[in-house]
Amino acid sequence: MSIAWPALCLAAGCGPSSGSSGTLYQRLQSEDPSVRISAIVQAADEKDRKAVPYLVERLSDAESDVRFFAYISLQKITGQTMGYRYYDPPQERAEAVQRWRQWLKDRGAPPAASQPKGVGSP
Q: Which of the following CATH numbers is that of domain 5-106: 1.25.10.10, 3.90.25.10, 1.10.10.10, 3.30.230.10?
C-alpha cells in the first residue's frame, strides 16, 4: 500500500508542535496526539523495528487518528495487520492488539515503556 505520508500527516494535524522534543520513543508516548502521529510517521519512514512495541501500544490510543497511523506504520514496517482495524469496536480492536502483543512476545521483543497518564483508551 502506497501512502502519501505528507498529505495524510497534514490532514491529521501532525505538523511540527511545540511539544515535539525528545527521542522518537518519547514522542511516541507524548500526551499531544499530533506529536504521537508525527513520531509514528517517522518510525514508519525509517522502518524502525525498535518502535514496533510502541506502535502496538498506540493501537489502543484514545485518538482514532493515532490508531490509524499506528496501524499503517505497523503494516509498513512488519507487513502484518493481525486483523486489526482502527475503526472496529473496542472489543475487536483489543483482541487484535492482543494478537500483536503475542506476536511481539513470540519474537522476544520487549514491551514498550509505560505510557504517560492520559494516553490510551478511555
A: 1.25.10.10
Q: In whole angstroms, give the CA distance from residue 53 to residue 45.
A: 16
The reported pTM is 0.77
CB neighbour class for 33 (10 Å; exposed up to 12, middle 13-18, buried from 19) = buried
pLDDT tens, residue by residue, 99-119? 999 999 999 887 776 544 445
Q: What is the mean pLDDT of residues 71-90?
A: 96
Most confident listed range (2-6, 15-19, 61-65): 61-65
Number of residues written out for the chain: 122
Distances (CA, A) of 108 to 7, 49, 53, 69, 74: 35, 13, 11, 24, 17
